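SAMPLE LOG
Freezer: B-3
Tube label: C17
Construct: single chain, 358 aa
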Amino acid sequence: MDTNSTLSFPVIRGLQAHREYYVAMWTLRMMRQISIFNEDELPPELRAQRILNKARIPEIAEYIIDNPDDYVFSALTVSIDSDVLFEPLPGQDKLGLLRVPMDAHFIINDGQHRRAAIIEALKQRPELEHETIAVVFFLDIGLERCQQMFADLNRYAIRPSRSLGLLYDHRNDKARLAKMVIMKSEIFRDLVDMEKSSLAPRARKLFTLSAFYNACADLVNGLATGNLIEDADLARTFWEETAKHFPMWEQVREGKLPASEVREGFIHSHGIALQAIGKAGNALLHSHPNDWKKRLKALEKIDWSRNNAKIWEGRAIIGGKVSKSTTNVVLATNVIKKALSLSLSEEEQRVETAHLKK
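STRUCTURE (predicted):
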């Protein structure tokens, strides 16, 4: 191999499934200097990777730009479609230089969106070009092998539940607010599942963190001061006052009622109701900042039974199942706002009118 026409970089040599592979640290600048084979124009059966979703790139790039001191990326996995030469360092058999022909193609098996986002981020933050990312190189032995690698790399990739993502997200202020409310509230600390985004029929909790997150976000919309402690105190006060009008919640917390029984029988113990209460509560806090607590008593006048098809069918229940679509949340909110003697917004009235015409 002519070393004058090759790209050389230090690597660690490894062995996996009887095949050599190499691990390198590439500077972010190299992401835009290395020629990556573009498969977008090929039919699916001739590609080794999915088509690049360009809509994802700005979001990932913004993540890098907004968090230059603590962004984190896992390694890219890349196949090289050319012969390479590994030159071990003196006295070493695993550390050395990998020499790759300049005309070689690099095919990304895992990480194409990360690479595209890095290139985009460097346009705004060129000072990041000297930082590094791990890259794992496999020697390409054909399309079939590349396609199998893609399938294998994604075979066991399971996206974490939304609740777990929110639980571990310390950058999202709304997530921090919801978590602070839960942890400081004696009742909701025992009613909210912090990991799951859907509850099993026999689950002991009433709500998920993702549902409570949505409800809190809607509750403080336009009311948040930016002071996390003050905003969390307001939200916690509201939800604890609300809980006083749902004695079943307290009975579940105390173990006197099974959560499954309450969820099976009543709308108020589902995420759609929690979010609808949050939306209606936002309007209540805006319009009645001084006497909103006593007005919450009107929640007791609502028939929350799932069997009350006259109220809930088509609003919160579709074909016997609770629906959490945006339209259904609005329709459930309308029921609560009317009970609280609150006027509907223009959009809420539009959705209500369309529902009544069915």
